[in-house]
Specification:
By secondary structure, the protein is α+β, with helices and mostly antiparallel strands. The chain has two domains: about 5-80, ACT domain (Alpha-Beta Plaits); about 85-155, Alpha-Beta Plaits (2-Layer Sandwich), CATH 3.30.70. It contains four helices and nine strands. It has helices at about 15-25, 55-65, 100-110, 130-140; strands at about 5-10, 30-40, 45-55, 70-80, 85-95, 115, 120-130, 145-150, 155. Strands 5, 6, 7, 8 and 9 form a five-stranded antiparallel β-sheet that branches. A four-stranded antiparallel β-sheet has the order 2-3-1-4, with helices on one face.
Amino acid sequence: MIVKFILSILVKNRPGVMSHVSGLFTRRGYNIDSIAVGVTDKPENSTMTIIVDGDENTLNQFKGQLLKLPDVLDVKDLPYHGSLVRELLLMRIRVESEKRTEVFGILEVFGAMADEITDDSMLVEMNGNPRQVSGLLNMLSKFPILEMARTGQIALAYRTDL
């Protein structure tokens, strides 16, 4: 059965590591839904969060192949529905002053905020799970998007040993 899975990959913080890891998926014909990389509490290491679709066999295959790469230190598969998953959205929309109240109402519902307001636009910031971010995008779809940046998803598994 094909499902979405999250790989949390601890790697050495070196140039080219992201390319080597993502290349492993590309060479096997898999599309990466999301990829995010950030330095950990130890500056010599980074964590890569990769989200892809596949089955249990594919997941195990990728984990084994990733661990063979010299810069990969550890690979964890996180349960998609048992993890806290977040991404960041920055978006500048065209909005006239008479429509700002409507936009502020939408932002409040989604826990988003306006970081900048000009005569004819707003810069919106929101972080949330992918469903929430997509929901905000849907609700603001009637306002022309002037610019948009959406990060890859990051995740940590919920603790079950508490």
